[in-house]
Amino acid sequence: MAQREIVISTESGSDLPAEVVKKYDFKVAPMHVIIGGEEFPDDTEHVDRVFNYFRSTGRVPSTSAVNVGEYDEFFTRIKAEHPGCVIYHFSYSSLASSTYAHAEQSIKNFDDVYLIDTKNVSGGCTAHMVTAAQYVREHQDSIEDYAAFADELQALADRIVCHFIPDTLEYLKAGGRVSNAAYLGASILKLHPLIEIDHDGRLIATKKYRGNMAKVARKFLPEFLERYDLDRQCLYLMYGKGLSQETLDYMKQFAADNGFADSIYVMTGCVISCHGGEGAIGLAGVLKEGLVTKA
Q: So what's the pLDDT on residue 23?
């Protein structure tokens, strides 16, 4: 049977770097950030607006998911530009946003659009999508059942691991996600919580690191590799704008020194920055093939 064109899409909360979008021709539906009553698309170009608004008001901008109507327009446009295509849409964790539920409702209006729950955010989504795109390229000439193939792409989510550490809890406190007591305690002791994304896509605070982010990076990165047996093809280096160049350079060198063939910087856009704030740091990677359960 003739093979059909496959298009991979997502929302902007995946924080896909521009070079990755171009390389794999990913299609991206923008989520939204509302600042002072004005709505902007979620991207890295507007992230300074988030930080400036917080500095001047002490409030975190509000964010909104892609709604059903926007998804309808998004998938209609892809179908028009790529007649007869099959779409695999990789959504931000279904437990972290309503964007998955909206996509789920929208795809009922289309044939051959399959929804994948990345069970992740930001760099974790990027890692899943790049891995999936490579998998598609390897198998696209032999696909016989596109629905069954969607299940294979979904299964890749269990091989993705993603952790991040905010430099400050100010944004989480302002957004009501941590108590004032927890914020004060962490600030006094200069503590930074490790946020892990579990097997189901929940964001969970686990251990705490102490010190500035340069010091934190030198503890966090080795511990991440000690904990997970990762495929050495690529390490995804997540960061919030404001992280020092010294630390960014250290992350890149660390990946090279530990045998990764490539590493990709993933800068958080507006939606993630509303939670993590400036100067956050994170890592995402892919477990070696055959390891399909997160530790």
A: 97
